[in-house]
Design a protein that fits this description.
about 80 residues, alpha/beta, 3 helices, globular
């Protein structure tokens, strides 16, 4: 079963989206921001990442740079 990391600062949207992904058979790990997501990526093996950083592009770019520095071939779904 594929594991997905979903990052969303809006609690309601996070709940709805993760619920829909779970109904489609995915295991979902949710985080509220990029910092928490990076911490999670260091300890868990995940298949893909989806997130909403539309309010804070700097946070998105920082996340991308950090995952590259961690030698992770991660292409987030935005």
């Amino acid at each position: 079963m594929a594991r997905i990391l979903y990052v969303e600062d809006n609690t309601s949207l996070s709940f709805v989206t993760s619920d829909q992904l779970k109904k489609r058979g995915y295991q979902v790990v949710t985080c509220k921001d990029g910092k928490e997501a990076l911490s999670t990526l260091k300890t868990q093996s995940l298949f893909m990442i989806g997130f909403s950083f539309s309010r804070d592009k700097k946070n998105y770019l920082g996340f991308k740079l950090e995952t590259k520095a961690m030698s992770m071939n991660v292409e987030p779904i935005t």
